[in-house]
Amino acid sequence: MLQRPSLLNAEVHHVLREAVLEDRSLGAFKVNRRVFTDEAVLEAERRIIFDHCWLYFGHGSEIAQPGSFITRRVGGRPLILNRDRTGKLHAFFNTCSHRGALVCRERNGKRRSFQCPYHGWVYDDRGVLIAVPGKESMAPGLVESGEMNLVEVPKLGEYRGFVFINFDPNAMSLEDYLADAKAVLDLVSEQGETGMEVVGGTQEYAVNANWKLLQENSADGYHAATTHSTYLDYIASRDGMSDNTRRMADPAATRVVKALPDGDDMGQDNDFNRVRDLGNGHAVIASIGAAPWGRPYARWVPGWGEDAKAEISEIARKIVKRLGARRAELVTNGDRNTLIFPNLVINDIMAITIRTFYPVRPNRMEVNAWALGPIGESPTSRDRRLRNFLEFLGPAGFASPDDVEMLEMCQSGYENQIGMEWNDISRGMLKERPTNTDEEQMRVFWRRWKNLMSRANNM
Ligand code: FES
Question: Ligand 1: which residues within 6 Å by Cβ?
């Protein structure tokens, strides 16, 4: 059912074998630009990466009530995620077992059954076929056999409200797959005393660039000073020129290290302003108190007005009481751009965004993004959070349009590949501890990509 036809020829095998070159002794790391432009490479990615890795589907808060559902394309396939009447989660292929129509056309809703709009077959919220118009003309027992039920995606997993699916029935468990990225999801989730929720709907946009470019871009501290200079100018004009803004506006600035007592919860030491390899191709760039923007639960900025100061202090006091001073500092004052292989980004910075991106063609991706916030947040705090979100992370904010333009310019640049076939991703490679403006987090992605794609040579 999940097999895709092979398009791989000897030339593609060669490209995949030679796509990522690394020489640690020289500090050299190169990625061949054909991986951003070649249709056959994308086909191999679909079969090797998207058919076997855990893929983010949605957040549990989007289907909080029994009977609620969402429909989305995940990994190129139309799916339904629902919570049945008993509260159990299901992920179904959104394909009718009769003649293949989409069973559910709505984006979300609440119902105890799904009726295919074509001939009216009805499935209950556990995928069981329960009604067929003109059933007497069907083969005896066919409806009752279970053979015609909705088909469930082979694997479904949830961690701290983040729901993932996997098309590979033999895939490792979600917890093993997430590896040390679980620690980041813990920090994100602990901001809400009673949990976190997706706020509003899905933000959708498309970019004329290869999907992997957004993975690189989403945790690229090096580009902030140039690509996002307008945002930094805006912050400086609104809140005054702080040391943090000055430092981010200068790509040559020395990193800031803030030590936390008793080690930290994401690694082995107290150096928080650096890149962390979280295993299985996941990575995070993290810092504490070093970014120029305000954080709704920790860092007041003048642009929020004096009234906000007291409320933020009170929120922070309660979180310290709940989590302890050290954990509260990590949770509320830590900025983290996290990459979960292959295509999930969770940026917990001035606000929290969940973002996925899927390839449509080698030079086009579709992006979905959601804002995440603590359940039960006060209206004023929620307002600050969402304004922060829209200012920078939203599709019309200061960041996303500038990023989109840069990614599309890269894709255009890749049309010239004669004598300039390689991207250089070696920044900080010879450092003992690469920092947030280095490119180690991208190398973590590319090493995993190479490891997986090398399997194409056996196909
Ligand atoms: Fe769904 Fe016929 S295709 S009922």
Answer: 96, 98-101, 116, 118-121
